[in-house]
Amino acid sequence: MLDKRLIGERNTLAILGFVHRFGWLTSRMLSALVWPTASQAPAMARRAVKALVDDGMLLRRPLPDGGDCYTLSAAGARFLNDAAGTLASSGASLSLGNPVHRACSNWYLIHHLNDGTAVWTEHEIQTGRAPFTTIDGKVPDGLLELDEGLVWVEVENAWKNRKERQKVVTFCERHLLPNSQLCELAPNRYLFRIAIVGTSPDALRAMVRSFEDAHATGLLRDGQAGDIDLVLLPVDKSLVAGELVTVNLYWDALCPAGLEVPAAP
Questions:
Q1: Is this prediction's pTM over 0.85?
Q2: Cis, peptide link before residue 62, omega less than 30° from 0
Q3: Which of 89, 170, 197, 200 suits 263 as a labelling partner, its CA being 20 to 30 A distant?
Q4: φ, ψ dihedrals at 173, nearest 5°
Q5: How far is residue 87's CA from residue 132's CA, in Å, rounded to a whole number?
Q6: Residues near 196 by Cβ (< 8 Å), separated by ≥ 6?
Q7: pLDDT of residue 43
Q8: Which residues contact 193 (CB under 8 A, 6 or more apart)?
Q9: Coil, strand, or helix at residue 12?
Q10: Residue 156 and residue 141: Cα distance in Å, rounded?
C-alpha cells in the first residue's frame, strides 16, 4: 500500500493538474474528479484544497452568487511544471466568465471523464491547448473524444431567442452527416455527434421547437437528428449539479413515438 506521503503527493498532482485543465474548479468538482467513489469525497476535497491554499499552491476566488472556486497560483503552476512537465500558468487574473455556463460544461465533462472518456475542456479549447480549429466562427464548450469521432458539447444555460437557436440548428444542418462531408475539427479527428447540454428544461424545449421546425421542412434530416443528444444537467447558484439525463433528439423527441424532454428532478 502507498504511504500517506505518497498518496498526498499523488492527490496534489491530480488536483493541480485538473485545475490547470479546467481553468477553475470548485472543491465539489475536485471531489468528483479525484475521489469519484469515496463516501467522504467532499470532506476530503475540502481538506486537500485548504491545505493547498495554505501552502500557496491554489488561489481561492469568490463566485458571484457565493461560494468559492480555485485557480492555480504562480507557485502551484511552477510545482506542476517541475513535477509533471506541464506548461501551466497562474490563474490569478483568469476571468471566471459565466460561472453557471462553465460549471455546466465542467460537470458534463467530469461525468464523462469518470466513465473513462477522453475530453477537451472549454478552458483548454479557449486557451489554444486543444488540437482544434473553429467552425463557422463557433467554438465548442467542450469536446468528447470517442473511437467514432468527436462529440461537440454546446451548453445552453439560459433560454435563447429564435435567432440564436437558429444558429445552433444551422450549425447542425451544415456539419452533421448526411448533408455534410465528414467535418474535420482537428487533424484526423472528425465531428461525430453534438450534445446540447441545458441547465433547464425550458432552454432544451425551446431548442427542440427550433429543431422540429427544421425537421418539418426537411432542412434537418433524420440521420442528423439522430446524431444530436439533448442533455438536462441542472446547475444551481452554488454550482452544484443535479442528476444528468440524456435523450436523443430524433428517437426521443422528433419521431412519432418520441418522448418529452425530461422535467427537472
A1: yes
A2: no
A3: 170
A4: -60, -40
A5: 18
A6: 154, 156, 168, 204, 207, 228, 229, 230, 231
A7: 96
A8: 149, 151, 152, 227, 228, 229
A9: helix
A10: 10
